[in-house]
Specification:
This protein has a 4-stranded antiparallel beta sheet with strand order 3-4-6-5, covered by helices on one side. A two-stranded antiparallel sheet has the order 1-2. It starts with 11 loop residues before the first strand and ends with a strand. It contains 6 helices and 6 strands. The protein is 42% helix and 16% strand.
């Protein structure tokens, strides 16, 4: 299957010219008919740009986790983001094996980096776990119970989706990356809201 993007044959193309993640006051997208000379370069952003965005977001997370600073607020519409609704509409129908791997790997990298930073700050492993669970609940990822397993009710990643197998790809990756960094543990999802279970559950391995 040819996966090359055909930029020239589109009726319209778009290029992002400003980004809040880079410190701009707003995100801005330029729409023009036909081909844009610098479209491909804008999609394949320079790694230094991605690192700047990542570092800025990480600073906000660490400020919240270590110093009780507020997470980023949008001045007029607040901090609530129903991103899972948008994700389900746009991405869920196209989640193939390759994309599942991308979600898992991205989650694992994010979880590991966050765990390592918190440990480097001087927190103990148990306190690091507690603070990250508080962060996830604060961000309305779900309602989490940690014991011999990890249970999450109202998990936003799978809410409204029906599948035949556990499918919390990003959350599973994140938990694996985080717990491998903090406690040298790995997890496997054994129950999933998308399968009709009352909660999503991960067993430690």
């Amino acid at each position: 299957m040819n996966t090359t993007l055909d930029y020239a044959n589109r009726d319209w193309n778009a290029i992002e010219t400003k980004c809040i993640g880079l410190g701009d006051p707003y995100c801005e997208v330029k729409l023009v008919p036909g081909e844009i000379d610098d479209l491909k370069a804008s999609l394949e952003k320079d790694s230094t740009v991605i690192e700047r965005i990542h570092e800025r977001l990480m600073e906000h997370l660490m400020g919240f986790l270590l110093h009780d600073k507020s997470l980023m607020e949008r001045p007029t519409i607040g901090s609530g983001v129903h991103i899972h609704d948008f994700q389900h509409v746009t991405a869920a129908p196209t989640v193939n094996d390759r994309l599942q791997t991308v979600f898992k790997m991205g989650g694992a990298k994010a979880g590991r980096m966050l765990g390592e930073r918190l440990l480097d700050s001087g927190l103990g492993a148990d306190e690091t776990v507690r603070r990250v669970i508080d962060l996830m609940e604060h961000c309305k990822v779900g309602k989490i119970t940690l014991g011999e397993t990890i249970r999450m009710r109202d998990n936003c990643e799978r809410f409204g989706i029906k599948t035949e197998q556990p499918s919390c790809y990003f959350t599973t990756g994140f938990l694996n990356g985080f717990f491998s960094a903090v406690k040298n543990q790995h997890v496997k999802e054994t129950r999933c809201i998308a399968m009709g279970d009352p909660y999503c559950e991960w067993e430690f391995r």
